[in-house]
Design brief:
- The protein has 371 residues and is an alpha/beta fold.
- It folds into two domains: 7-32 and 270-369, Aspartate Aminotransferase, domain 1 (Alpha-Beta Complex); 51-269, Aspartate Aminotransferase, domain 2 (3-Layer(aba) Sandwich).
- It is 40% helix and 15% strand.
- It contains 14 helices and 14 strands.
- It has a seven-stranded mixed beta sheet, with helices on both faces. The chain has a three-stranded antiparallel beta sheet with strand order 10-14-13.
- Helix 6 (112-120) links the parallel strand 3 and strand 4.
- Helix 4 runs parallel beside helix 11 (256-267), helix 5 (84-96) packs across helix 10 and helix 12 (269-293) packs parallel to helix 14 (355-369).
- 48% of the residues are buried.
- The structure holds pyridoxal-5'-phosphate.
- The site of pyridoxal-5'-phosphate has 13 residues, from helix 5.
Length: 371
């Protein structure tokens, strides 16, 4: 399979470790190894005596158990561990789709959610959020996109890049449609758990629909992207078994140290997520003030969940604006064109602690460089 460059990841490869002020990252504040190990008594000693052989291909049982605890109707046997969410997306698309199948993808999207399907030879239709209406998705539009060949509908809530989060009735209606039409819901839930109001948390798709596949990862809600541990949770035995077999051609099994550390993190999932939500709360208050001060230049909508949002630039073109900002002030934003989006929006990320400091620099840049 030939895949085109992953625009967003290539952009990060160029800037992430050279631009001093990242204001578009999607992961939450990370932590030091020693801080993670102190969350579990005796973990340091156990970590040092860990054997570094192959691990179980489906994932360490303790890790799968800890991941399963994030769901209502999922047990450890329904969890299949991968090297990040990215491997899980690749493997899922490869087992669920054949050339000539049709996929509908919530847009604008994290590129691999559509691109891998395209690489397999599937037809991909975008189901776009409405920029005029907080990037809401309309089930009526989905109806018009469905064809007899539609095998998979991909959704991502809370959404990267817009921050959109629907209510539970939306997910239940989607689940009913999947029963009626026979498509599989692939639900990218990597930002789940980052709801500012816990009552806004959506059920996991795999909990309410026994053919759906929910995608989780350590990178976003838990701020542990460097572990490269993700998983799918699904009661769909056919997809689970085919993904297990496909994984023999990608990573075979995950890294033992990462599985050990991810297990400790998930056993303390609530504590880690709460710490990250506190950071996000504080950052959103700063962003509200910043965007109010610059309402002539930006259109801002505070999201209910997640660590990213997609404000619109009202003047000029977003590519030029982002280039000038990184060149003159060292501040990295992500132009929406990297998502193939034409609404002149950019991604802002607010999961990291230094956002207030970066916003001060952004404010200084705007005062100096806009008339
Ligand atoms: C919506 C979405 N899905 C999947 C991924 C991939 O996650 P990971 O890099 O942890 O594999 C990302 C990363 O940004 C994402 O935003």
């Amino acid at each position: 399979m030939k895949l085109p460059p992953f625009r967003l990841e290539r952009y990060f490869a160029q800037h992430e470790f050279s631009a001093p002020f990242l204001l578009c990252t999607s992961d939450c504040e990370s932590m030091e190894l020693q801080d993670l190990l102190t969350l579990s008594p005796g973990a340091q000693e156990r970590f040092l005596s860990l054997r570094l052989g192959y691990t179980e291909s489906s994932g360490d049982p303790a890790l799968r158990q800890s991941a399963a605890a994030l769901y209502e109707n999922i047990t450890a046997d329904h969890v299949l561990v991968h090297a990040g969410a990215e491997e899980a997306i690749f493997n899922f698309m490869n087992v669920a789709l054949d050339s000539g199948d049709h996929v509908i993808v919530h847009g604008p999207c994290y590129q691999s959610l559509a691109e891998v399907a395209r690489g397999i030879g599937a037809g991909v239709s975008e189901w776009p959020g409405d920029p005029a209406c907080n990037w809401e998705l309309d089930l009526g539009v989905l109806h018009t996109l469905l064809t007899p060949r539609t095998k998979v509908v991909v959704v991502n809530f809370p959404h990267n890049p817009t921050g959109f989060l629907p209510g539970p009735e939306f997910l239940h209606a989607l689940s009913a449609l999947s029963e009626q039409h026979g498509f599989i819901i692939f639900s990218d839930e990597v930002y789940r758990g980052l709801e500012l109001d816990p009552s806004d948390r959506l059920p996991a798709a795999a909990d309410i629909n026994d053919r759906a596949v929910s995608l989780g990862v350590m990178s976003k809600t838990f701020g542990l992207a460097g572990l490269r541990i993700g998983w799918v949770a699904t009661r769909n035995t056919r997809i689970y078994n085919e993904m297990s077999a496909f994984k023999d051609y990608t990573t075979i099994c995950s890294s033992a140290p990462s599985e050990f550390l991810a297990t400790i993190a998930l056993q303390n999932a609530g504590k880690i997520a709460q710490r990250n939500i506190r950071i996000i709360h504080n950052n959103l208050d700063h962003l509200d003030r910043f965007f109010t001060d610059h309402a002539d230049l930006f259109q801002w909508c505070r999201p209910k969940a997640g660590s990213v949002a997609f404000p619109v630039l009202r003047k000029g073109t977003v590519d030029d604006f982002c280039t000038d900002l990184v060149e003159k002030a060292g501040i990295l934003l992500l132009p929406g064109t990297l998502y193939n989006d034409g609404s002149n929006a950019f991604r802002v990320g607010f999961g990291r602690k230094n956002v207030p400091e970066v916003l001060e620099k952004f404010d200084a840049y705007l005062k100096k460089h806009t008339p």
